[in-house]
Amino acid sequence: MLLLKQNQEQNVGELKKGDRILYLDDVTVSFDGFKALNSLSLSIEYEELRCIIGANGAGKSTMMDVITGKTKPDKGDVIFGQAANLLEMDEPTIAEIGIGRKFQKPTVFEGHTIFENLELAMKDDKRFFKTLFAKLSGEQKNKIEQTMELIGLKEHYHNKASILSHGQKQWLEIGMLLMQSPKLLLVDEPVAGMTPGEVEKTGEILTDLSKRHSVVVVEHDMEFIRSIAKKVTVLHEGSVLAEGSMKDVQNNEKVRKVYLGE
Ligand SMILES: Nc1ncnc2c1ncn2[C@@H]1O[C@H](COP(=O)(O)OP(=O)(O)OP(=O)(O)O)[C@@H](O)[C@H]1O
After folding, report:
1. How high is the pLDDT of residue 1?
2. Is the pLDDT of residue 141 over 90?
3. Nearest-CA residue for atom 17 of ligand 1
4. What region holds the ABC transporter domain (predicted)?
5. Structurally, how many domains does the chain consist of?
6. How remote is the CA of residue 86 from the centroid of ligand 1, in Å?
7. Mean pLDDT over residues 223-236, rounded?
8. Which of 40, 121, 128, 188 is least enclosed by beta carbons within 10 angstroms?
């Protein structure tokens, strides 16, 4: 298992800004004959913030499930980094080689402090109490502190997660993912249920993150997408309908036809 992980990490290789980090080629997923993904091809760059939009049922979650290994496609290729074939790996291996996924509902440890939540997320040994009382190195403490700063929770470090607002819990969970040093972060509807102030802060956090990671955001909130988007991919019936800046996509004839019935 360890050897497999090391080989796969080598296959991911060293990446620099602008290199391709994720490549889906001709990916099809069928459920009882219905194609949730239909020859989907898509590529994401290292240190890019990409927004994925699309109506209900367009295939956004299925695409995330394929990338993280939850769903295996009927056909196609999914390559991470230079040459790591994600279709040959199970979910834990995919997470270990650098793909983190943030689901819509936060799942933080409510009874533990912000600091402890991040500490627990960092450790390889998942046995809860053993992990919590093991001594942290200076480097590990620094990493936790930098992460708390990034997610705007530094002054809350000793507070229990249970007292955080919904938005703060979402940020803490993003922080927990960061403790595993992912190269690619997949974020599902990050601003659902947030206050306007929290939405703005989330945009800042994700933009900041994309300077050191690749970030893929699936979101229905178009105002939010407009505020953060550099490049947008529109999915429709399991394939890419359009891709480009928010302006390009909004002016795209096919998109206008599908969304606005023009
Ligand atoms: N396990 C499954 N079995 C059968 N059909 C499924 C399954 N998962 C997804 N589908 C179907 O595949 C299509 C794509 O679903 P998917 O959840 O990927 O869309 P989505 O773009 O994420 O939608 P939403 O915005 O509503 O979350 C939908 O028509 C859905 O009903």
Report:
1. 57
2. no
3. 61
4. 22-262
5. 1
6. 21
7. 91
8. 128
**202/261 Cα distance (integer angstroms):** 32
CA 193 – CA 170 distance, rounded (Å): 10
pTM, whole model, 2 decimals?
Answer: 0.91
The whole domain housing 113 covers 1-260
Hey, whose CA ends up nearest to atom 26 of ligand 1? 56
**What separation in Å is there between the alpha carbon of 103 and the centre of ligand 1?**
15
User: Concatenated DSSP letters for 128-191?
Assistant: HHHHHHSPPPHHHHHHHHHHHHHTT-GGGTTSBGGGS-HHHHHHHHHHHHHTT--SEEEEESTT
C-alpha 31 to ligand 1 mean position (Å): 9
Q: Which of 61-70, 72-81, 130-139, 235-244 is predicted with the least confidence, judged by mean pLDDT?
A: 130-139
CB of 62 closer than 6 angstroms to any ligand 1 atom: yes
- Which residue's CA is the closest to the ligand 1 atom numbered 16? 59
| Cβ pair 76, 40 in contact under 8 A | yes
In CATH, what number is assigned to the domain containing residue 66?
3.40.50.300
- The count of residues in the chain is 262
| Amino acid, single-letter form, for residue 212 | R
Residue 57 CA, ligand 1 centroid: distance in Å: 5
End-to-end CA distance of the chain: 53
Choose one of 31, 32, 258 to mutate for the ligand 1 pocket test, by most ligand atoms within 8 angstroms of C-beta. 31
Residue 130's pLDDT is what?
55
Cβ neighbourhood burial of 20 (10 Å; 0-12, 13-18, 19+): middle
